[in-house]
Amino acid sequence: MPKRKCKFSERLANKYKLFKDGRHKYEAECLICPPGTYISVANKGSQDLEIHLQSQKHKRNAQSYCNIVELSSFFSQLSKSTQLVNAAEAALAFHTVSHYSLYRSMDCTPKLNAEIYCDSDIAQSASCPRTKTETIINKILGPHSVDVTIQSLKEISCFGVSIDDSNHLSLKVFPILIQFFDYKAGGIQSRVIELEAIPSETSDTVSSYISSTLKHFDILNKCVAFAGDNTNTNLGGLKRAEGNSVFSKLKKSVNKNLVGIDCPAHILHNTIQHGADCLAVDLECVVIKLYHYFSTYAVRTEQLKEYCEFVDTDYKQLLSHTKTRWLCLFPVIHRILETYEALQSYFLSLPSPPKILKDFFSARLSKAYLWHLHSLMSVFYDNIKEIQKEKNSIIDIMNIIENVSSLLENRLESSFISLKTKEVLSCAREEGFDSEVDCFMEEAVSLYRECYGYLNKWSVSFADFHCFKWMDLKGKVLMKDVETCINFLGEKGILIDDAKCCDQLCNLNKFLEHYSTDLESRSSNDKWVKYFESCKHDECHSELLKMAEYFFSLPGHNADLESFFSLISAQWTNEMNNLNVDSVKGLLLVKYNFKHLSCSEFYKYIVSQQGILAEISSSIKYE
Known about the structure:
Number of strands: 9
Strand content: 5-15%
Shape: globular
Distance between the termini: 44 Å
Helix content: 55-70%
Radius of gyration: 30 Å
Number of helices: 29
Structural class: alpha+beta
């Protein structure tokens, strides 16, 4: 049986301060010797490091190093001044990215600052034109944001990973986002650790990309959850078919106990879209045609304004709708309803309008369809906004889905029709359109039925997490509820000491009783952060912390990646179309991973980072 290799562990790193991590976990790099001096520790561990320390080559390098340190002590004041200049350059680079400015603006900004603040030595010395600014972002601040994240994970037991793709011209860009719980930093944290353009989006390519990235950062064994949009490629569809999905392959290459989480925002999107397919009128097609009819024609828009004035309605510009975001149809329909009479009068007065629009505005119940769908979509629209709130836990998401399901069930049982819709139907009955009204009523109820069935079918994937229900801390926590959670975690390979947990639960309940009023309006994330901060010793919360780190590492939604794609669209514009993938990666790592810092806060942070300030002065960053 082969001997097990020794690793450069954290214990060795603490004992031997002159070494740091090497190219892989079986070697260390000497900080005294020239860069690239790697010492293998695979065979003898600490003895290999001792042998290197006693070598003549190392002793000569150590003597030269001491002379350099002694010489640098004469220039301590200059070093401090240089650090402040470097911090200013880093802050200006961050400010450029944070406010979506072009890199070429930095050819001017430092010069302008030097003129305005002519009495400032820092303003006079700071010089970071576009090339240096881009290099600081791509080679220093971007990688630093990832290093800080990986360093945080050393004290965290687990995390979840999310992935999605975004198209830019012929490129398909895949960011990898991780979520973990760090109560010292405010609870749930989401960070991007990688972004690459992948030639294809097959399950083999994507799963290999994820596993190799996690392996590169040596965090493979801490990944406990995978989240993505609800495609067959990502999660294997409703039945979670084994074999060909990214999720199935990650279970083999990353963690056999990995859990897969559907995106609830996508589920709600698809629910209302699926239900609307049972309606006789294709409102999506109508609103798209309506928008394009006016969007680029000033003459038509001016004519519509005249009709708005004639029917005593304020003109409001029609909104666009994209098929990839179906619920954006809600504000579009709301805007159409606000100007419905003017639009109807306009199209019925035209000699040859588009047939789809003429038929729609000629139909007696068109407005009823608009009001009915508008009434239901408002429920989905508001709840999706709730889902996309920052730091939502999986239990918060489950409560939202259950709420929507209850609302749909109630509307189905009562055959609910809004008052605005009833007004239109009442007028239609008075005019003798009884048969059309009856057909509409059947479709209205069918809409609820289809939505209710689809939502219940797709929300089954969240049922496994009901054992964490007690973690919303809305009342006294009972041990019998926690035991179910302990059994679930045991099946996932996370062992919880039930005896310690029982004792710590007593402490938790005392906390909940004491702070009951203050905690009432807080989210579950904030409650747990406050609890852990109140604990003076690890013994008070060690087992509960394991459970919290697992629970809050489960991505509740994919909205963080959607916001990340919004950043991509904002940064990779027509004006900045020459950016390559590495430049976009640097921009977005800085923008997303430091999103919690304002520009002034970032400056205060970067002033304390001596290593980063040294890199800004170094020419190595251009290599």
